[in-house]
Specification:
Layout: H1 3-11, E1 21-23, E2 30-34, E3 37-47, H2 59-76, E4 79-90, H3 96-112, E5 117-124, E6 133-142, E7 158-162, H4 176-179, H5 184-194, E8 198-203, H6 208-219, E9 221-226, H7 238-243, E10 250-254, E11 261-262, E12 265-275, E13 285-289, E14 292-295
Parallel strand pairs: 4-5, 9-13
Antiparallel strand pairs: 1-2, 2-3, 3-6, 4-6, 7-10, 7-12, 8-10, 9-12, 11-12, 13-14
Length: 305
């Protein structure tokens, strides 16, 4: 079973949703309208053995990542955080001290990013081999502009990324994926600066190749990424930058002038958006490596059962 095949099956039911649903499944957050306002919501899971190596990672960093990976979805929409809820299933031998450390880390992380932890659920699994699972729900409100979707990229736009890409997880499981700051403030600043010139955005959790392809698919455009322009982290190659995942940077499509940095975070133009009718490209998302143009949409992470 492939993750995105199952998700596309879910998205096919979007037209059956109530009109109060302003953003249906298929973007970084959903949105519902009620009481004259709008609330965005997203849920994500951290699974030990899949997203962190519990044997080599401190409980504090496990709790931090459980929260920040959900907060990154708020950044992707250029929204403002409201609150967080956590449901956790702990292995039977996890222990009370470690459980307290885990939840204190999550609480502190929520406070730091002004998205307070207001509730949730806790369960202990009966199977000693069952991994730690933290399911984190975040709520947000629109920022200075309407939520920035994946579906607004236009031919003629430039594709940008914040920060550096690739090499996020070291051999021992440590690295950037445990210590990143979700780009919430940077996204709000970009929305304020660019206004309606900020056409589409996504956070990079599955790798630039996979996530930029989501923008191309949702926007019905084609995108060409220039390998030579990718801001690679450390010794990472351009292929690492496209496929490693867990960067939690922003990828966005915009027109006109874009600043080279916000709050000290570099912004790099890495590609161009073309019409979906462009026939000479081999795929919806391509990477240009010198004189070679190749398909790039499959370069990235996908869960498979």
């Amino acid at each position: 079973m492939r993750e995105f095949d199952l998700l596309r099956h879910i998205y096919r039911s979007n037209d059956r949703l109530d009109r109060a649903v302003g953003i249906p499944p298929g973007d970084d957050m959903g949105m519902i309208r009620f009481g004259g306002g709008e609330v965005l919501a997203a849920v994500d899971q951290l699974v030990a053995g899949r997203h962190v190596r519990i044997e080599t990672t401190s409980v504090e960093l496990v709790g931090r990542k459980a929260i920040t990976r959900s907060l990154s979805d708020i950044a992707a929409m250029a929204a403002r955080p409201l609150c967080t809820l956590v449901a956790a299933t702990l292995p039977p031998e996890f222990g009370e001290d470690r459980a307290r450390q885990l939840f204190e880390s999550m609480r502190r992380t929520c406070e730091r990013f002004e998205c307070p932890l207001i509730g949730g659920d806790l369960a202990f699994h009966g199977d000693p081999d069952h991994p730690l699972v933290c399911s984190v729900t975040v709520l947000a409100e629109p920022g200075p502009t309407p939520p920035v979707l994946r579906s607004g990229a236009r031919p003629g736009d430039t594709l940008y990324v914040t920060g550096q890409l690739g090499g996020t997880m070291l051999d021992d499981g440590s690295g950037h994926h445990l210590t990143f700051d979700p780009r919430i403030t940077e996204a709000l600043m970009l929305a304020e600066l660019l206004g309606d010139r900020l056409h589409a955005m996504i956070d990079l959790s599955d790798g630039l190749g996979r996530d930029a392809d989501h923008i191309a698919e949702a926007s019905e455009v084609k995108i060409v990424i220039d390998a030579a322009r990718l801001p690679c982290r450390g010794n990472a190659s351009w292929k690492d930058a496209l496929q490693n995942g867990e960067d939690y940077e922003l990828c966005f499509a915009a027109s006109g002038s874009v600043p080279s940095e916000v709050r000290g975070v570099p912004i790099t133009p890495v590609g161009e958006v073309l019409s979906g009718e462009t026939g000479e490209l081999p795929a919806r998302l391509c990477v240009r490596d010198g004189d070679t143009l190749r398909e790039a949409g499959e370069l990235g992470w996908q869960h498979e059962a």
